[in-house]
Write a structure and sequence with these properties.
2-enoyl-CoA Hydratase, Chain A, domain 1, 261 residues, alpha/beta, Lyase 2-enoyl-coa Hydratase, Chain  A, domain 2, 3-stranded mixed β-sheet, isomerase activity
């Protein structure tokens, strides 16, 4: 059975981790499947992505059995090579979703530990079920978070929060995660809510949505004020008066939904 499935319905790609008997724990095959799924969507004709896990958990982290094999041998030879641009395979599990040019909405339930937590951080938006457990679990195994977490976490949470979670490996509930900026919204039906948000996004100008994601990524990259202001103007010039924007104006004037080519 595939570790990950991708289904596109009405311009929305539904990416599902399909290893529920293992709480969607990440082994090398799962990591490869997640990355392949993300890469397949970079040039796809889609407007949003819903990322979820089948069964009672979003993702329980690294598969313990595969972890034992992964820990053997020379760690530098295994994890230092940059196999996916500026990342290795396991870093790309989270980072590939920032390369997908449309918004990615994560639907999180049960647990999101370690690798699963960092995967969720790769999404633009995270909807979590009440009581969902979140953890930077690596310290439990004498490791540090190394799947893109240190790129993604500082954009979401305070330094003291990141340090506490990293040093202790203590799980927190989604409600605390929301207060700390790690969860966007709590909802009893996270998948349905994520789907609803994706449908809302899919009705907006496709070119403006893509421009907005590019602009936000650039603004969060540490670029200076001058560069960000120039990027705002550049992206705006790229959508203003173009077919998608003109269709939005016409639809608003006519009181109908826009229809994009």
């Amino acid at each position: 059975m595939p570790r990950v499935t991708v289904e596109t319905i009405d311009k929305i790609a539904f990416v599902t981790l399909t290893r529920p008997e293992k709480m969607n724990a990440v082994d090398p095959e799962m990591a490869e499947g997640i990355v392949e799924a993300g890469q397949s969507l970079i040039d796809a004709d889609i407007r949003a992505v819903v990322l979820s896990g089948e069964g009672k958990a979003f993702c329980a982290g690294l598969d313990v059995m595969s972890f034992a094999k992964h820990a053997a041998g020379d760690p530098e030879a295994r994890i230092m090579p940059r196999t996916h641009g500026n990342t290795n395979l396991f870093q790309e599990v989270a980072m590939v979703w920032r390369k997908v040019p449309v918004p990615v909405i994560g639907a999180v339930q049960g647990v999101a530990f370690g690798a699963g937590f960092q995967l969720a951080l790769g999404a633009d938006i995270r909807i979590a079920a009440p009581g969902t457990k979140l953890a930077i679990m690596e310290m439990k195994w004498g490791l540090i978070p190394d799947m893109g977490g240190m790129v993604l976490l500082p954009k979401l949470a305070r330094s003291d929060v990141i340090r506490r979670l990293t040093y202790t490996a203590e799980p927190i509930e989604a409600e605390q995660g929301e207060a700390w900026g790690l969860v966007t919204e709590i909802n009893e039906q996270p998948f349905e809510r994520a789907k609803e948000i994706a449908q809302q996004i899919a009705k907006k100008s496709p070119s403006a949505i893509r421009a907005a994601k590019r602009l936000i990524e650039f603004a969060e990259s540490g670029a200076g004020e001058d560069e960000v202001l120039l990027a705002e103007s550049r992206e705006q010039a790229g959508v203003m008066g173009k077919p998608d924007q003109m269709e939005v104006i016409a639809a608003n004037m006519a009181g109908r939904d826009p229809e994009f080519k």
